[in-house]
Amino acid sequence: MRCIRPSSLFQERLNEEQSLRISTTIVLLVAAAAAPAQEKPEGPPRAQGRGNMGRSIVLGPDDVRAFPDAPADFNTRRAGVPAGRIEPFEYDSRVT
What we know:
With 96 residues, this protein is an all-alpha fold. The chain has one helix at residues 6-34. The mean pLDDT is 75.
């Protein structure tokens, strides 16, 4: 009959944990090495700033406009029509 000391059980458990960590690390390294590197998608060059925010929007033949075109003189000043005014106002805020 074999007598197992508590210290040897601890050592066997420790060896199992170390071997599991090592094998997991090896599997992850092999998977990372086997994965192909991601290539940049080909397309139009990126505009300066964030992404393609500088590019103009081009509608396709099957796209539907959300709003109709504005009238040709919508941004010209007309006599007799008030242009607007700026009025300052103050209020008490509980935030600041």
